[in-house]
Design goal:
globular, alpha/beta, six-stranded mixed β-sheet
Length: 951
């Protein structure tokens, strides 16, 4: 590594906005309802730079008050920008606090932009012999690049790229980085409202620069231009020079580079920890600790090595990290032979600082007396400790119990299966006692483990994970996060017991009994405390009924479905895999032929170059933040109907993904002990209330293509005595929106059993129902479903053969035809603005923190959620009710038929053939009567020897 000192200057707002929008589809909301996405995104980027580069000198540069000089030159400068999202306004003061606590200088000057501050400091540092790296994705900074000044650009998907002189010259097709100013001046910048020269875009600007070298030389030789171009440029010479001035980064801001002030220093650990805990940044705190080489400081220390300060802080004696440069995280360590004292500054309580009584119970008489006491309780929290996270194969290592805060007991299980079964039989009276409430965190796992020992958990249940999901669906729901958030308590880390992942990781059975007891009983104790906290909040959020009558009963239903699993035809999948190989090779051959050469189709860069450089399929192709051509599916799908090679590429991608994700992967996910596939249904992932499927994800199997549908053919009945039954709600979301909006035209169409899409087409195109064409029905269908998701004229035109004008006219006619639908949409948005949430027919809430944002993009996303969340969520609630009722009926009737799968609006059953007629009636009745709407619910039934045939 060079001895030349390096300075890193961070463009604060560029990384803050980037971090915020990275989480826009899944914002990070803490328990106080604060959107912390921007803070988290920025801090992740900052820590990443520090870990990767270990800079000698670092500063973060902010805007303050905008550019006074540029606004004086051009009043409309940046005038077209949307209001800054509220989450970013909230984020900036927190980020400034964190930077101050980290002792990282904040460089800001009233009336100047961060670009100008960074430009000035870069040039000053360059004169003092420093290499400067400008951390920003903003291409405008390329004008500053020199032998010792570089752009350090975060790239999409993670990582960074460094732009030096050669990279800038190649990127902009220029001879000198200073020409970037001319380039920006010529083409303008819509984000900053720099006008540029009329009619000059990116390609033209590069062409003009190649020919004339600068804005000034271009304007001096306009007589060489022709036609409209000559006319436009000659008429706007002053505008061109103004644009160049606006695009020029200032190098004379009154700031000063003093190397001592910019040295990367050791942070104030206590202060940073305090802020991160307030923001509930658990993982980010771990990342921070690793970055600055004190990752062990908050671990539980052995009693012999602990001291306590007068402030009550824990002190642990440990070897410090080695000196800077010795390792990626070793930034501020001392000599390896020195001892040092590291202070844990966390304000949270731990097992070490909290009085508690956790006891392991010996076998024999002690266990017998314990069970007698256990059976006297009315509510008990329990937590299983096992050998695996897979409940199908996991064996019990122990069970912890707690029914009083700060107290609990642990029953270790013998490894011998017969002896373990003897112990579980002693606990059977507790687990199968209807009068005792069972409390736990993720009880579905414990219930599935206990079923292996032939134990059914009876009585009312309270699952803290499910309770929190209803209280705050946008937060994470694992116990450690909940404990830190609601109880200000950091539980013992599992890694302190079994170690980190890898071949040396222990199983829980190998952990000493004393540590097992502390860890397991703490879990039960903390879960009990969370239960007492969440009971009150469920009532305050009006979600107690949803918890008691849907989510908790569904927990048992899902446990049974997951344990049952489904049979898989592996031979068929092997055959399908070979067919896909052949299909993929045929597509490859077609693509190479159309491209005129062979290339890596899976490489976005190579693909982009072929499509847009060589074949020049469109005039102005979009580019990614890294500067390469955008070839994502949403981009290419718009071009597919006009270019056969694009359709072949999309088909190639679809088949390749289908093969790797499902056809080749599913056989590896068959559980050897059962010979079946056991998906895991998660209740606490989707904020709308929908279930998620994992390992394998059966809800994302593509059904729009023939090959995708064939994957369903691999799912088969138990044996020849069974047949699969698929029951699917017909157009349930449209029925719900018709009922919620009270739109008579739609309601009547459903009541009379009409094809809703044909009925809609008949009305909006003003033709008799019998004369509706296939194209009209297709367009009406697109609008019907698009309205739920806020489809625009632009979006509709991209999904159909309609022009944007025709699409707008169709949407306007649609709302005229269904006036109450528009009123419903407006009412939902108004309700959300007033209350901060919307809700389903059963009261499930979707909180919308950005509904009143002054940023149009952010607000628009929240408004779309305000409309579709109650519809999606109501559909999810209704099918959950149906699942509960059907499950109860199957159990009560002691049927051999089993419910296997839930995929969106569909249920799949393994039906014992002699029960088929009864089951068909039972399923259809329960699904159609799960909830009463003004519109009848309709269920389509199908049977078959595989899922595809049944569907």
């Amino acid at each position: 590594m060079s001895d030349q000192k390096r300075l890193f200057l961070v463009d604060a707002y560029a990384l803050i906005f980037r971090g915020y929008y990275a989480f826009i589809k899944n914002p990070r909301i803490n328990s106080k309802g604060t959107d912390t996405s921007a803070i988290m995104g920025f801090m992740n980027s900052l820590l990443d730079v520090i870990k990767r580069e270990r800079p000698d000198h670092l500063a973060v540069c902010f805007d303050r008050g905008g550019s006074v000089d540029r606004v004086e030159m051009f009043e409309a400068y940046k005038a077209n920008r949307d209001e800054t999202p509220e989450a970013i306004k909230i984020a900036v003061p927190y980020i400034e606090q964190i930077l101050k606590a980290m002792h990282i200088p904040i460089m800001v000057k009233e009336g100047f932009e961060a670009d100008d501050v960074i430009g000035t400091l870069s040039k000053q540092a360059e004169k003092e012999g420093y290499k400067t790296f400008m951390v920003t994705p903003d291409k405008d900074f390329a004008q500053l690049v020199s032998d010792n000044i570089f752009m350090y650009r975060p790239v999409f998907g993670g990582g960074y790229e460094t732009w030096g002189i050669e990279e800038v010259k190649k990127k902009f097709e220029i001879e000198d980085p200073l020409q970037v100013i001319d380039f920006l001046g010529m083409m303008g910048d819509s984000s900053d409202n720099i006008p540029g020269l009329p009619g000059v875009g990116e390609k033209t600007a590069k062409k003009l620069l190649t020919e004339y070298g600068s804005m000034e030389n271009l304007l001096a030789n306009t007589h060489e231009l022709k036609g409209k171009m000559k006319e436009n440029i000659e008429a706007n010479k002053e505008l061109g020079m103004l644009s160049k001035k606006l695009a020029t980064i200032m190098l004379d801001v009154p700031v000063e580079f003093d190397a001592k002030d910019f040295e990367l220093d050791q942070p104030d650990i206590a202060k940073v920890t305090e802020i991160f805990e307030e923001l509930e940044f658990r993982q980010l705190l771990v990342n921070f600790q690793k970055t600055f080489s004190f990752e062990n400081e908050t671990k539980i220390a052995e009693p012999s090595s602990n001291q306590t300060t007068t402030e009550g802080q824990k002190i642990e004696t440990k070897k410090p990290a080695s000196k800077a440069g010795a390792g990626q995280f070793s930034l501020f360590g001392g000599d390896e032979n020195d001892n040092d004292v590291i202070i844990s500054h966390s304000s949270r309580n731990t097992a070490e600082t909290t009085s508690h009584f956790y006891q392991s119970i010996a076998s024999g008489m002690a266990t017998k007396l314990f069970v007698q006491n256990l059976l006297k309780q009315t509510s008990v929290c329990f937590d299983t400790e096992t050998t695996s996270i897979n409940p199908i194969t996991a064996e019990l290592v122990g069970i912890a119990f707690s029914w009083e805060v700060g107290k609990g007991y642990y029953l270790p299980f013998p490894e011998n299966k017969d002896e373990a079964q003897v112990l579980i039989e002693q606990l059977r009276p507790f687990f199968e006692n209807d009068a005792i409430q069972k409390v736990g965190q993720n009880l579905k796992y414990d219930i599935k483990v206990l079923r292996k020992y032939n134990i059914k958990v009876k009585g009312t249940l309270f699952d803290t994970m499910l309770a929190h999901y209803l209280i705050n669906p946008d937060m994470r729901h694992n116990m450690d996060v909940l404990a830190e958030t609601y109880l200000n308590y950091t539980p013992i880390s599992i890694e302190t017991l079994i170690g980190k992942k890898g071949k040396n990781q222990l199983t829980m059975r190998e952990v000493p009994l004393e540590k097992q007891t502390e860890y397991a009983v703490e879990d039960a104790d903390i879960t009990l405390q969370l239960k007492e906290h969440f009971e009150k909040e469920l009532g305050e959020a009006n979600t107690q009924k949803l918890f008691d009558e849907i989510e908790i009963p569904l927990l048992r239903v899902l446990a049974d479905m997951e344990l049952e699993g489904i049979n898989l035809d592996e031979a068929f999948l092997n055959s399908l895999s070979k067919q896909l190989d052949s299909d993929i090779k045929t597509l490859e051959s077609n693509i190479y032929k159309e491209a005129g050469e062979e290339f890596n189709i899976a490489s976005p860069k190579q693909l982009g170059d072929i499509l847009f450089e060589k074949l020049k399929l469109i005039d102005k192709p979009k580019k990614t933040k890294t500067g390469q051509y955008a070839t994502s599916e949403d981009i290419l799908s718009y071009l597919a109907k006009d270019h056969e090679i694009i359709q072949h590429i999309l088909d190639y991608r679809g088949l390749a993904k289908l093969k790797s994700t499902y056809v080749d992967a599913l056989p590896t996910q068959v559980e050897p002990s059962t010979g079946r596939v056991h998906t895991d249904y998660m209740q606490t992932v989707a904020a709308t209330g929908r279930l998620s499927s994992n390992n394998p994800n059966l809800q994302n199997i593509p059904i729009r293509t023939e090959r995708g549908r064939q994957v369903r053919k691999a799912f088969i009945p138990r044996d020849e005595n069974y047949i699969l039954l698929a029951a699917d709600y017909s157009q349930i979301e449209l029925r719900i929106i018709a009922a919620l909006s009270k739109e008579e035209n739609m309601i009547n169409a459903f009541k009379h059993g009409e094809d809703i899409h044909a009925s809609t087409a008949s009305k909006v195109f003003n033709v008799p129902l019998s004369e509706v064409t296939r194209e009209q029905r297709s367009n009406a269908k697109t609008v019907n479903f698009g309205i739920i998701y806020g489809v625009s004229a632009f979006g509709l035109s991209n999904q159909t053969d309609l022009t944007r004008g025709e699409s707008k006219e169709l949407i306007d006619t649609y709302y005229e035809t269904y006036p109450k639908l528009r009123k419903y949409i407006n009412d939902q948005i108004h309700f959300a603005r007033e209350h901060g949430y919307v809700q389903t027919v059963l009261g499930r809430r979707r909180y919308l923190n950005d509904i009143n944002s002054r940023n149009a993009v952010v607000r628009g996303a929240a408004e779309r959620n305000a409309v579709n969340a109650p519809i999606q969520g109501s559909a999810a609630d209704i099918i959950k009710i149906a699942m509960i009722h059907i499950h109860d009926k199957l159990e009560a009737g002691n049927y051999k038929t089993k419910m296997l799968l839930q995929v969106h609006d569909e249920l799949v059953f393994d039906v014992y053939k002699p029960e088929l007629d009864t089951i068909k009636t039972l399923v259809k009745t329960e699904m159609e009567n799960a909830y009463t709407l003004e519109v009848p619910l309709d269920v389509d039934l199908g049977i078959g020897n595989d899922w595809l045939e049944a569907h």
